[in-house]
Design a protein that fits this description.
By secondary structure, the chain is an all-alpha fold. It has ten helices and no strands.
Length: about 200
């Protein structure tokens, strides 16, 4: 079953590269960097294989082609990173890795059929890697969701508090305080002409 899944994935990636070229490599590596299980160990060597066969970047100097493919992979790793410094570090760190993987694919060329049994023996490793990547993706999604909910709850509580304070400061006086008249003082009552008539 895993071999069938790998074949489907390989066919999809090949079709992507054939139709979009370097942009497809950028997209595939961006997906891989988002912790979606699309391993760079498949994405970049396939780019090297297709470079060697002339399917992508046909007629380009092989070394220039390798550099372009590796740069496309590194740019893909760079997309959706939140901080500028991570952009620099990701680009510098992923470029050599992408170059190495693309070079391995270029050297292998169209000899993947002879190496198929070796790759199939690594099925267990690939399954474990895919499971770990999916678990990491789910964990990060849950963690980010909890953080978002907590910050939303704090923001709502602060908004409610501010609204209550505004309502209390703008509240009109009640009937008792509005219509209450002071009681007459004792001195006033003695000098009042109506009080002497009793």
């Amino acid at each position: 079953m895993l071999t069938h899944l790998t074949d489907i994935l390989t066919t999809l990636i090949k079709n992507l590269y054939s139709s979009t070229g370097l942009a497809g490599i950028v997209l595939a590596m961006a997906i891989e960097s988002c912790c979606i299980p699309l391993p760079s160990e498949i994405v970049m060597p396939l780019a090297g294989v297709m470079l060697a066969s002339g399917t992508i970047l046909g007629g380009v100097n092989p070394w220039a082609g390798l550099l372009l493919v590796a740069l496309a992979g590194a740019v893909g790793c760079l997309i959706e990173m939140p901080f500028v410094k991570f952009c620099v570090y990701t680009l510098l760190g992923s470029f050599p890795w992408c170059l190495l993987l693309a070079y391995a694919g270029y050297v292998l060329g169209n000899h993947l059929a002879t190496l198929g049994p070796i790759f199939r023996s690594l099925d267990v490793v690939i399954i474990v890697a895919v499971i770990l990547l999916v678990a990491l993706y789910i964990w990060r999604h849950i963690r980010n969701d909890r953080k978002a909910r907590a910050s939303h709850a704090v923001a709502e509580a602060e908004a409610r508090s501010v609204n209550q304070q505004m309502l209390q400061s703008e509240q009109p006086p009640t009937e008792q305080t509005q219509f209450r008249q002071p009681w007459p003082h004792p001195q006033q009552s003695s000098s009042d002409p109506r009080s002497t008539q009793v």
